[in-house]
Design a protein that fits this description.
Radius of gyration: 24 Å
Structural class: alpha+beta
Shape: globular
Number of domains: 1
Strand content: 15-25%
CATH topology: Peptide Methionine Sulfoxide Reductase, Chain A
Number of strands: 8
Strand order of the largest sheet: 7-6-1-3-2-8
Order of helices and strands: HEHEHEHEEEHEEH
CATH class: Alpha Beta
Length: about 200
């Protein structure tokens, strides 16, 4: 056999083997999207909460919405009428490789007064209650551990009123509530803490 043809045949056999091996044992490419997780927090008016969480490195998105009530497809008017039982919340989508759930929970307790019941500052009503809605048993444990730790450390002069419950259905708020401060080029009047504040 012609030496050149023999060499070409060997090269093709090797190439076929490499392609077959890659197909049988695919390896994730550098472009594989990260495994994202969700977290849901209620800490008063969702405009300020969304504004702050959206700036944390590792947070992919923060969406304003409603959760924890009895009404399907709630509207802002219904929420304000205090007849739905829903809280104003933020659904955070984050990359756990860049920011941990514990960090997000610890930040939650820093960004508002978790000792207030059914209010946050001048905003009064059960829609402004302090609440963490967890998406897994692991999140539940972390949230409870952080709350217990702060209680034992007497981090606040009054008892922590934050509720910790399994995440219910999340209802996205009306579009005019999304990115409320960013789109209006305003700084929020509440929820200002150093961790995510603009430099």
């Amino acid at each position: 056999m012609n030496p050149l043809l023999s060499l070409l045949k060997s090269a093709l056999i090797v190439l076929a083997a490499v392609v077959s091996a890659r197909a049988a044992d695919p390896k994730p490419s550098a472009m594989t999207p990260p495994k994202l997780e969700k977290a849901t927090f209620g800490a008063g008016c969702f405009w300020g909460v969304e504004y702050q969480y959206a700036k944390i490195p590792g947070v992919e998105s923060a969406v304003s919405g409603y959760a924890g009530g009895k009404t399907d497809f709630p509207t802002y008017e219904e929420i304000c009428a205090k007849g739905t039982g829903h809280a104003e919340v933020i659904e955070v989508t984050f990359d756990p490789a860049k920011v941990t759930y514990r960090t997000l929970v610890e930040y939650f307790f820093k960004m508002h007064d978790p000792t207030q019941v059914d209010r946050q500052g001048p905003d009064i009503g059960d829609q402004y209650r302090s609440v963490i809605f967890t998406h897994s048993p692991e999140q539940q444990k972390i949230a409870e551990d952080v709350k217990i730790g702060l209680t034992l450390a007497k981090a606040f002069s009054r008892p922590i009123a934050t509720q910790i419950d399994k995440a219910p259905k999340f209802w996205k708020a009306e579009e005019y509530h999304q990115k409320y401060y960013q789109l209006r080029n305003k700084k929020p009047y509440c929820h200002l803490v150093p961790f995510a504040e603009e430099k």
